[in-house]
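Forwarding these from the shared drive since the link keeps breaking.
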Amino acid sequence: MVSSQAKVKAVADIAKNRLYLTISGNVDAKTLNALYTDIRFCVADLQPGFIVINDSSACNLMYLNGLPVYKKIMDYLVANKVGEIVRVVQDTISHKQILNFTDKIQCYKTMYAEQLEEAERKLAATRRRNGIRFKLNGPSIAYTINNQNHSGTLVDLSISGCAIEAEGTIPAVAQELTIVLLFDNHEHHPSQFQIKARVVRATVSNFAAQFLDLDNDRQEQLYQRLVYEVGRNVELP
């Protein structure tokens, strides 16, 4: 029988620039707040782009009062420029809760594995991106090909590129285009980003593009806008 006693742990591997999280048992807000405190101490020792491996394979249940704290942990990792996140999971109530929760909010995109060894293999095989990918519900996106305007739906977005579900013409691989991201007006963050990009992948209904002309300052502006977007208040289930 699996124990319901909650256990959480955060460990920083400074040499690998990784944060290892372990969450098990039936977890409530108090337990997750303790984990959040430990995470803050660990992240202080890591560099931007750090990797997170979150082993929640033995987490049976997350009480509803823990979901706001879980979101707070997610937002903290984003604000501190996490590079990639892998969740080690099993088919538990907790896993289904988290999937249901993250489907309803703006957040980062996560890789999944069933064992720690599989998580390590996936990380080794994954091409490192310049920034984590975000799943957003908000911004509208348009793209211009040969002076013709098209629109689409944003699948995911990072400071180095994006994936778009197209409503019109699908550009060819290697084709260059202009992408326009439109956010709500904000006092401190830009509401529009116009970016030159090159198509790196295309199917019959969507394509992925790599950004070409975002300098460091503009990348930071985009990242901070994304931090703001995923940190917005949400109506928790």
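-- next protein --
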Amino acid sequence: MKKMLLELDQVDCFYSDLQVVRSASLQLQSGEVLCLLGRNGAGKTTLLKSIVGLVKKQGVIKFCGNEIGDFPAHEIPKLGVGYVPQGRRLFSELTVRENLLIGQMTRNNNNDVFENVFKLFPVLQERLEQESGTLSGGEQQMLAMARAMCIEPAVLMLDEPTEGLMPQMIANIRQAISTLKSQGVGILLVEQRVEAVLSIADRVAFIENGLIKETFDVAELSTDKSLLQKYIGI
């Protein structure tokens, strides 16, 4: 039985006094992939940042039924909310091992989390002592996801995880998302590659000018391509 993990109700987001997102409401269940689709500047990244306490916001944000909207940013990962920002944001001078340890120590998890990570991304086990800044773009994205996975998240938020990657790396990332979904993780995904979204997402929420306009099951989008044209011009 699916569990409600994340709930946003009438969330407004601001940079100083500039409002970027208006009255955003969404729900994410366990074992579900919900994708935010919209043009550049629509507010997708800002909405993710609001959940993890990185931007000023108003409204209700709940995780597993508990209000977390006023929690400081450093407390959110400890609850089990993983966030992989656009651009990865690794500690480039630290090794792969050290980056993973940072994720592990966030919730004081045991070393078993590394085994799960290496099952999804075996190349990271081969690169443990390598500085993360010297990895390829695809390997860095894997490490960013792996670091977030080391907190054993109930919710994992990914911002443009396939941006700039080669097709094989994109396939690896998509497979990892599918595996996490099958394990019951709720995934909130910002992605521009529509073809990638339709193959792994359960629902798609279209965001336009800071407003979540409509949310559809992927099956409906697959049969009515005019919706993609309407909201993102594809």
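Residues 167-182 form the longest helix (16 residues). Strands lie at 4-15, 18-29, 33-37, 56-63, 66-67, 81-84, 155-159, 186-190, 203-208, 211-217.

- D.
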